[in-house]
Amino acid sequence: MCRALLVMCVADDPAELAVLKAAAVSAEWELTAGAAALEEARRQLADERPHVLVAFGEWTELVSWAKDRWPGMRVVTDRDTPGADVVATSLAEVRGAVAGRPRPGGPVRS
Questions:
Q1: Which of 12, 8, 25 is nearest to 91 (CA)?
Q2: Which residues contact 27 (CB under 8 A, 6 or more apart)?
Q3: Which of the four, 39, 40, 58, 70, has the lowest number of CB atoms within 10 Å?
Q4: Global pTM?
Q5: Torsion, Cα of 13, 66, 79, 57 (10° steps)
Q6: CA dihedral defined by 46, 89, 87, 78, rounded to 10 degrees?
Q7: Alpha-carbon span 47 to 28, nearest angstrom
Q8: Which alpha helices (H) appear in 1-110, and where do they start and end?
């Protein structure tokens, strides 16, 4: 059975969560409801078992908790966080980080 990539977003409040989900949405994967509170985020992670967690804000405890339980889960954060697989420094980088594409930058070649 094939299962679509499942992505869960968490942010510090519901308004920021809506903005983050808009930045993360793609035809290539499914988004969960997402969360703006630690206990709701833990519940969703346990129930949904997403492949990718996108955490914007201070979510160090959640990232640690998730990586302890599911070491293979890809974690995208907006800051250096222990356990994060990639840091997206802006909302524009979220989709690429979820997909595992390298961040823009590097030397320019003609």
A1: 25
A2: none
A3: 39
A4: 0.89
A5: 10
A6: -40
A7: 22
A8: 14-24, 38-48, 60-69, 94-99
Residue in the block written with tokens 């994060």: 84
pLDDT in tens, 75-109: 999 999 999 999 999 999 999 999 986 555 544 45
Helix H or strand E segment including 74? strand 74-77
Measured CA to CA in angstroms, residue 103 lies from 31, 61, 62, 90 at distances of 22, 25, 24, 10
pLDDT, one tens digit per residue, over 37-83 is 999 999 999 999 999 999 999 999 999 999 999 999 999 999 999 99
Alpha carbons 88 and 108: distance in angstroms, whole number: 21
AA letter at 96:
G
**DSSP-assigned letter for residue 85:** S
